[in-house]
Structures are given as structure tokens and as C-alpha cells.
Amino acid sequence: MTGGNHSVVFESVLVGLASSLETQLVLFLVFSVFYVAGILGNLLTVFTVISDFHLHSPMYFLLANLSFIDMWISSNIAPKMISDVFKKRRVISFQNCIAQMFFIHVLGGTEMVLLIIMALDRYVAICRPLHYLNIMNFQTCILLLVAAWIIGIIHSLIQLVFVVNLPFCDHNEMDSFYCDLPRFIKLACTDTYRLELMVSANSGFISLGTFFILIISYIFICVSVWQHSSSGLSKALSTLSAHITVVVLFFGPCIFVYLWPIPTMPVDKFLAIPDVFITPFMNPAIYTFRNKEMKLAMRRLLSQIILKFKLF
Fold this sequence. Notes:
Elements: E1 10-12, H1 21-51, H2 58-83, E2 91-92, H3 94-127, H4 132-135, H5 138-160, E3 173-174, H6 181-185, H7 193-228, H8 233-259, H9 268-288, H10 292-311
Parallel strand pairs: 1-3
Antiparallel strand pairs: 1-2
Helix pairs in contact: 1-2, 1-9, 1-10, 2-3, 2-9, 3-5, 3-7, 7-8, 8-9
């Protein structure tokens, strides 16, 4: 594959995960269930927040945006991954590979910033409850959300602008089920050491830095809750422990993949599974289905739907 001919397809191989028909069937069923359940759960969250005026507050506005991003993170990789399970030859075009990498980093970078905004929202709600609506008003939320998307787009473009014009050779097989920068860069017919360092610095340290910011913010929230009410600390710890579990599942693979020294390791391809399937599936369970207001809103929505069907 030459630098001037990007129309040649790449082979994305799921090595070790689909060695037999039985394994392929299990993978197909498990991935399909997680993907569909995650999409339905996040879609329900978005629809409930939009339709119920009781949820038109900063916290639920940010939650709906998290669910929206999770749906697209999963949909960027999962459908092709599921459809490729039974295939012997899994191919993806150069253009689709670039597009997949672009959206991986746009959506991933945006979600990282959004999680920080959500932690900030909870900190303001706990520490400045009387000024909460003034600080976290609708205009502020929109500006913060726009900033998150801008950061995500810049984060992605900074890396891809150096990748799209790389010269490639005949070797076009990636030991993975999706396109991402570390393995894609290794296909180039040139010295990519500096580019690999740039990717590690960009994606790796952003992931690591965001992770530590979130952990520190959770510690501040726990301390603030304890100062206001020691009895509420156990409830806060219970809630935040679930949040931290999701954060670890989301950031852990990113930190390992992008900070681990190049060349990539075979285990890297397994690490995408939590971000593609588990985190989008768990976020509605953690942030939505454990929330009393959300559960009440869903009951009201379900009652309205049932009533409309009865009228027909």
C-alpha cells in the first residue's frame, strides 16, 4: 500500500477472540446484548430528560449529554465489530478507518471533559447550594458543553493531521477489531517514533490527567459532605464508589493503551471492550436507574405512553 493510494483496505483481525464457531456465537450474543441494552438505556435517559420538565436542571442536562455521547461511542465501533464476528476476512477502508479514529478521539475527549463538568456541578451543588442555580445556569452549561466538544475536536485533529499523509507499505493487517492510532501508525513505512510520542503525550496524559482530576474532585466532594453532615458521608461514598468504578473502567484502558511504550501489546485490543460495551451499558444504571427523580420521571413517562395506547 503506497502513500498515494489510500483506497486499499485494511484488515482488522480479531485474533484470539473468535477461534471457534462456539466462541464466535458467544461473542456475538454477549456483544449484541450489551450494545442493544446500552443504546436503549441511554436513549431512555435522553428521552426522559427531554420530555419531563421536572428534570430540566443542570445535573440532568449534563446527564442526558453523557448518555448521548455514550450512544455514539458505542455505535462508532460496536456494529462493525458485531457484524465481523463470523467473518474470516474483516476489512475496513482507509477512509472509514480514519473516520473511526476521528470519532473515537472526538467523543472520548469530549466525554472526559464532560465528566469533569459533571463533577464540578455536584461540587457546586454540595458546597454552594444557595448559589447553585446562579453558578450552574443554562447559559453556563451550554458554554461548558460547547467547550467540551471543542476540546474533543481539537484533541482528535491534532493527532490525525499528522497521520493521514503517512506513507504505507504492503503490510496492512492490524491485530485488532477496530482502528486506533497506535496500531495504525505501526503500519507506516517510515520512522514514526516522534509521532508515537506525540500520541502518547496527547491521548495518554490527557486521560491520566483527567482521571486524577476526577478522583481529586470526588475526594473534595466527600470531604465537603462530611463537613456538612457526617451522616450523609456513607450515602455519598456509596454513590461515588459506583461513579469511580465507571470512571476506572472508562479511563483505565485509555491510560494503558496510550501510555504503554510502543510497540502495542496483544492485550490492547481487549481493553477497548469496556469502553465500547461495558461503560455505555453501566452509565445508565449508575447515573440514571439509581436516581429517585429519574425513576419517578420514567414512571410518569411510562404512564403517559400507556394512557395514549389506551386512547387509541
